[in-house]
Amino acid sequence: MTTVKVPFEEVESLIEAKLIRSGVASEHAAKVAQILIHADLRGVNSHGALRTEHYISRLEAGGINPKPEISFRSTGPVTGIVDGNDGFGHVIADAAMGHAIEMAKENGVGMVTAMNSSHCGALSYFVQEATKHNLIGIAMTHTDKIVVPFGGREAFLGTNPIAYGVPAKSEKPFILDMATSNVALGKILQHKAEGKEIPLGWGVDEQGTPVADPAKVVSLSPFGGPKGSGLSMIVDIFSGLLAGMAFGPHINKMYGDLDKKRKLGHYFCAINPSAFTDLESFLTQMDAMIQEIRKVPPAEGFTSVLVPGEIEQRNEEHNRETGVQIAAATYDYLKA
Fold this sequence. Notes:
The chain is an alpha+beta fold. The chain has 10 helices and 11 strands.
């Protein structure tokens, strides 16, 4: 697959303009573009500009409300619910984490579920927003079935990602953003688009047999066997059941039935360290933890020990200066 390197500001502007031309409210288009380019900057292209065409296809089919009335209902000092009115998940999730952040600032903790949403993009964006306020951020979201449960042949679970963000004093924040499958579906699709094989263990065929050809993948595998399978259920409980939304096989498909609203749920939590310990000490200790982990002697085949999110943070620094690498076909689509 041919790729091109483009200034990130140009790509962000093209995405925003494309969405606006498709009838999306301007402020919502700007937020979606911001979150997509966040992924491309971090080198997570599976959640970046590549997704624009799919979003617009779903939008045009009626599966996304271009101008939703997003509402928030407080249910207690540290809890609340966002109803996304079937709009873009990126905007809905951003609103939900925003409310969680405000509650955490005031009361130590904020927990918000979001309902009637759609795909919200990279969760790293939302937990990173919490760290900007010296808060710990937690985010979860479920997806339609694509992952076989441990010991199973047929898909039941989604990739069901979970993310954590923890602030530090002088170091960049600790950002862990991971699917509970071995990889996110987007990585399978990216390898398929690029004509590359996938490592065995990423996906399975109809018989539940691991395959290297991304075109033969019917379902994904959970990471860590029963551990990943169990954690995936937890994510579905927090972002699905707790939000009053469906779970696993009852969730509307992302790549199919484009005219149907996804009705996804999300869960966001913000925690104020100062409600539990001295903030300055906490931030300093986070610096020490990160720095000491890096000093652990690397194993054979490794040059250094890194913390979660560090590679993506380095990518972002580099790509802000040199531009983001995206598929030429995606770039042509955005300019059309």
